[in-house]
Amino acid sequence: MNPVHLKLLVTRVMPYGKYKGRLIADLPGNYLNWFARQGFPPGEIGKLLALMHELDHNGLASLLTPLRERQHNL
């Protein structure tokens, strides 16, 4: 797991779709599950969605809390 990718989860927003404008880290699990079933899009956004799905699915989303706090304090 690349620390840079983890930071991107709390800074990058969803560029399209139902949750356009929402942070990748804030996407609901059912939306991430839908992508997992249908296939993640190509490129960086797909990699970030897949990573967030993995964290959410395994109950590890709390790993992002320190990054969120750090981002908030900037």
TrEMBL record:
Q: Matching InterPro entries, A to Z?
A: QSregVF_b
In its UniProt entry, what is this protein called? Cytoplasmic protein
Which species is the source of this protein? Nitrosomonas supralitoralis
Q: What is the lineage of its organism?
A: Bacteria, Pseudomonadati, Pseudomonadota, Betaproteobacteria, Nitrosomonadales
